[in-house]
Amino acid sequence: NYEIFRYQQGKNLTSIDVIWYPSLDSNNALLSTIPRIRDHITFKEFRLLFKKQPIYRYFFKTTCTPDINKEQYVFRELTMDDELVPLYDGKIFVQLDRIS
What we know:
The chain is mainly β and 100 residues long. The protein is 8% helix and 36% strand. It has one domain: CATH 2.40.240.130.
C-alpha cells in the first residue's frame, strides 16, 4: 500500500532500502525499496505500507553507545504507532518475530 507515500507536486524523491530478516535467527535477508518523501517514517506508516500477516514483532537496527554493545548497534523493538523507524547507514534494517 504505497498510498501514504504518494508523490507530491514539485518534490524530487529518492528511495530507502529496507533489509528484512524474516525471523530473529535468520541470516538470509530480503530487500524492498520504498520511496522517501521526508526524513522519517513512523512505525504505523511502516506497518501500513507492508501489511505483514500474521502478526509480527518488529526489531529495527539502530546505533548505540559502546557501553551497551561493542558492535555499536542493537535491534530495538518498536511498539507504538508514533515512534520513528530508525535508519542505519541510510537504510532500514528490520528483524521479524512471528507471534501468531
